[in-house]
Amino acid sequence: MDCARDAAEIERAAQSAGVAPKAVKVSAATHIMTLWVSESQLPEIELGVAKTGYGFERIAPGDDGPAASQTQKNPEYLRALWIVIFLNVGYGIVEMIAGFFAGSQALKADALDFVGDGLITFLGVLAIGWSLAWRARSAMIQGVFLALLGFGVLANTVWRLLNQTIPDAALMGMFGLIALVINVIAVLPLLPHRKGDANVRAVWLFSRNDAIGNAAVIVAAGLVAWLGHGWPDLVVAVGIAGLFLHSAWAIIRDARNDLRAAI
């Protein structure tokens, strides 16, 4: 999973398979789904979750965390994940710099989404085979870091609201379009592995969530150019930053719960 939205989507899929809302919990921190159901319900739940593009492997009683699957151990698959990490984090930094030059808060917020996705994937690569406690500790640090970045962009957006400036619409649109292309390119290295692992197939479904943010930046750029005002940029920035902070909070919350369960 690359954000709390994915975790919520998986929970809803399990509920659609007949699981009570209080009987399923998906941790955005450790990527573990906990179910309080009978053994006979699991096949139906697996089918429901499969509709999201995700699958799951059962953790035997007494295990402290999920073992790495054969796909996860595949060197080519790991190499593909590293490419995805560098694309997300690398372009996130580029887009953040572009946001400062363009004076666009929407670009900065979208850049956070790129950096956040890259860091979560990075944690997933590092944490393969780690214990639940260490996965939760790593996620906690990451969640706090992402939250600080999110609050920084939000605070800067408020400052821009009080000191109205018009961003460079051309730069906004150009880098928003590049961001959309990068999202597509980031999926390509995982294509050879899409049949071997349900989690890889999910990239296709959830990459559209990221594309919505990219499209919003492009639309905001068009409105800024058309109206000659900076408010569309600020509206999009607040929306993206809000979603980002929600994901960061979900990671911190789940990490705390997982740490309590592991100790």
UniProtKB/TrEMBL annotation:
Its annotated compartments are: Membrane
Database matches in InterPro entries: Cation_efflux_TM, Cation_efflux_TMD_sf, CDF_Transporter
Q: Topologically, how does it sit relative to the membrane?
A: Multi-pass membrane protein
Select a single GO molecular function from the record's annotations and give it.
ferrous iron transmembrane transporter activity
**One Pfam family this chain carries?**
Cation_efflux
Keyword Transcription part of the UniProt annotation: no
Could you list this entry's UniProt keywords, alphabetically sorted.
Membrane, Transmembrane, Transmembrane helix, Transport
Biological process terms in GO annotation: intracellular zinc ion homeostasis
Gene Ontology cellular component terms for the protein in this record: plasma membrane
Its transmembrane ranges are 80-102, 114-133, 140-159, 171-191, 211-228, 234-252
Q: Which residues form the Cation efflux protein transmembrane domain?
A: 81-259
Protein name as annotated: Cation transporter
Q: Which regions form coiled coils?
A: none
